[in-house]
Amino acid sequence: MPQPISLDARTARILPWLVAIAFFMQTLDGTILNTALPAMAADLAENPLRMQGVVIAYMLTVALLIPASGWLADRFGTRRIFCLAITLFTLGSLFCAISSSLDQLVGSRVLQGMGGALMLPVGRLVVLRAYPRSEFVRVMTFIALPGLVGPLIGPTLGGWLVEYASWHWIFLINLPVGLLGGVVAYRFMPDLKSPERIRFDLIGFVLFGAAMVLITVALEGLGEMHMAHTRVLLLMVIGSACLAAYWLRAGHIEKPLFSPALFRTRSFAVGIFGNLFARLGSGALPFLLPLLLQVALGYSPAQAGMMMVPLALGAMLVKPLANPLIDRLGYRRVLIGNTLLLGSLIASLATVDGDTPLALMLLQLSLIGMVNSMQFTAMNTVTLVGLSYQDASSGNSLLSVVVQLSMSLGVAAAGALLGGFTLPGNEGEAVLHAFQLTFLCIGGLSMLATALFFQLDSKSRMAARLMDLE
C-alpha cells in the first residue's frame, strides 16, 4: 500500500476545509434548485411540469464523468483537475444564471455537472493519499458533515431566494465561493500523479456512457419532450445494446472500466441492483414534492422550501441508529422491511390534498426522511462490505455512478408518469390527481427492490464501518 505524502502543517489544516466546501457546493446545488423550478418555468415560458431536464442534465453528467475522474487525476495531476473542476462548476453556475431559454439552461447544467463530477472524487482521492490511516476516518467525517447540511438548508435557501430576489441567485451565490475555492485550491491542493501510465478504457467508457444517456433520454422523452413512442423504443433498444456490448467486452479485456468479476460477490450484485431500483422513489421525491406543493397546492417557494426541511432532519436524526439496528437484525431483514416501508410512505403522499393537516404532512415527510436515510446507509454498506481491498476502489466508483444514474432515472420516470397523467389544459383538481397517481406508481416501483434484497444471506451482519456515499 502506498505511504501517505508529507504535508506541511498549514496545508494539513486547510485541505479538509477545501474538500468539505467543494462537497457543500455540490450537495447544496443538488437541492437548492428544486424549489425554484416553477419560478424558472414561468420566467422561461415553460410548463413547470416539464422542467425535469434541468435536474436530469446535472445528475446524468455527474454519473457519466465519475468513472473518468480517478484516471484524469492520475494522468494530469490532482491540483490541475481539482482547479479545473471548480472552474467548470463556477462557469456553469454563471451560464445558468444568464440563461434565457430552457435549452441554454440545460446546456449550462451539463457544464456545471462536469465540474461537480470531478470535485468530490478528486478531493477524496487526495485525502486518501495525503493522510495516514489513523487520521483518515476523522478527516472524512469532517468532510462528510457539509453533505448533511447542504440538503438541510438548500430547499429553504432556494425558496427564499426565489421569493425575495430571483431564481438567478441560486446560481450566482456559487460565484464568490468558486472564485475563493479556485485560489485556495491552486495554493494548497497537493499535485499528485500516478507514477505509472494507466491505460483508460475509452471504448468501454463510450459504450457505458452511451447506454446511460440513451436510456435516460428515452424516459425523459415520454415526459418533458413528448417524444414519439417509436423514437423512445429505438433509444431504449440502442441503449440496451450498448450496455450489453459493454459487458460482453468487459468480460475479456484486462482492465475494463468496471469488471464483471465484481458481481461474483453476491452482496455487491444485490446492493448495486437494489440501489438502482430502490432509489427511483427517493430520487424522484426532491423533484416531485416542491412541484406538488407549489403547482397543485398553491404554496409559495419559501413555504415549499421549508416543507423539505423535515426530510433532511429525519435523515440526520436516524443516522446514529443505523449501525446498531443493522448489526442486530442483519442487512436482509432491515432492507426488506425498510424498502417496503419506504415505498408505502412514498405512496402515502397520494393522500395529500388541500385539506391535509400540516402536522400530518410534516410527520409523513419526517418519516420518509428517516426511512430514506436508513435505506441509503444499509444499501451502501452491503454493496461494499464484501469486496476485497483490490476491488474496493472499482466497486465504490460503480456504486457512485449507479447512485447518480438511479436518481436521474427516478426524476425521468417521475416526469414521464406525471406527463402521462396530465392532459393538456388540466388545472386544479386534475393536476393534483396526476401527482397522486404519480406518487402511487413511484412508491410501487420502489417496493420492487424488495425482491432483490430477499437474495441476501439471512445471517449477514455488519462487518465494516458504515460509509456515507451520498
TrEMBL record:
It is found in: Cell membrane. One of its GO terms (molecular function) is transmembrane transporter activity. The keyword Cell membrane applies. The keyword Transport applies. It is a multi-pass membrane protein. The chain crosses the membrane at residues 12-33, 53-74, 81-100, 106-127, 139-161, 167-188, 200-219, 231-248, 268-292, 304-322, 334-352, 358-386, 398-421, 433-456. PROSITE patterns: MFS. One of its GO terms (cellular component) is plasma membrane. It comes from the Bacteria. Residues 15-461 form the Major facilitator superfamily (MFS) profile domain. InterPro entries: EmrB-like, MFS, MFS_dom, MFS_trans_sf. Its main location: membrane. Pfam families: MFS_1. Keywords: Cell membrane, Membrane, Transmembrane, Transmembrane helix, Transport. This is EmrB/QacA family drug resistance transporter. It comes from Pseudomonas saudiphocaensis.
